[in-house]
Write a structure and sequence with these properties.
The protein has about 240 residues and is of the alpha/beta class. It is built from ten helices and eight strands. Strands 1-2-3-4-5-6-7-8 form an eight-stranded parallel β-barrel, surrounded by five helices. The protein is globular, with a radius of gyration of 17 Å. The structure holds 1,3-dihydroxyacetonephosphate (13P).
Length: about 240
């Protein structure tokens, strides 16, 4: 089955560098059998959307507002993202939870607004090192899912994706260590079944956190892992191409 591979460029590239990388990827990654999604920053989205047209690569956003329209200074409407050709939107990323104090109620509202606009939310969940070390990771993840998915209804399993990103494994953390493929697969199985209970549909689950060329094949071999959410390695053609292949 095709894997879904999402490049989260975060705020790592300037405008011109985003466009250059998008152009390079349309040439170098076209024709690969997996579904590949590029998520540039908001400013680059319209130009990257034009670059990706007819390339076979898909467009994603790194966030979207909790309402379609209104007096929300600085926000971007999911309806406008949809009109621009965006298919996926990352919501609840741990960096937004930490630095922008996004809580479960906001993430829940953003998921509902994104679905109403016809976008596919990629809900990020992941425990921090404290929960990991105290053996509380599973109850913590179950709570994150319960709050984020409260009252969320989807028609098809493919309408929503969940990404498991253990916060301690994300490469911007200087002590980050990737989880091994078997443990990741166990956690994803747990997340998928909890989410299936809440949604009454079994969503695709992705792994994210220090995915590199050297570990992608091990993760990919696990049937429950439906793909990856990739940060650092999505900024380098050689690395990202191996992960996407
Ligand atoms: P890294 O792949 O750099 O660890 O980032 C993961 C991530 O946060 C993707 O959303």
């Amino acid at each position: 089955m095709k894997k879904l591979i999402i490049a989260n460029w975060k705020m790592q590239l300037g405008y011109r560098a985003s466009l250059d990388l998008a152009r390079l990827y349309t040439k170098q990654l076209a024709g690969l059998k997996n579904e590949i999604v590029l998520c540039p920053d908001y400013l680059s989205l319209p130009a990257v959307s034009a670059i990706l047209k007819k390339s076979g690569l898909l467009l994603g956003a790194q966030d979207s507002a909790a309402s379609a329209r209104g007096a929300y200074t600085g926000e971007v409407s999911p309806a406008d993202l949809k009109a621009l050709g965006v298919k996926y939107v990352i919501l609840g990323h741990s960096e937004r939870r930490e630095h922008l104090h996004e809580n479960s109620a906001i993430i829940n509202a953003k998921i509902k607004a994104a679905l109403a606009a016809g976008l596919t939310p990629v809900l990020c969940v992941g425990e921090k090192i404290a929960e990991r070390e105290s053996g509380e990771a599973r109850p913590y993840l179950a709570e994150e899912l319960r709050h984020a998915l409260k009252g969320v209804k989807i028609k098809r399993a493919s309408d929503l994706v969940i990404a498991y990103e253990p916060v301690w494994a994300i490469s911007t953390n200087k002590d980050a260590k990737p989880i091994d493929a078997i443990s990741a697969s166990d956690m994803l199985g747990f997340i998928q079944s909890k989410a299936a209970n809440l949604l009454e549909k079994k969503p695709r689950v992705l792994y994210g956190g220090s995915v590199f060329p050297g570990n992608a094949a091990d993760f990919s071999a696990q049937p429950v892992i439906g793909g990856f959410l990739v940060g650092g390695a999505s900024l380098k053609l050689t690395d990202f191409k191996i992960i996407c292949s």
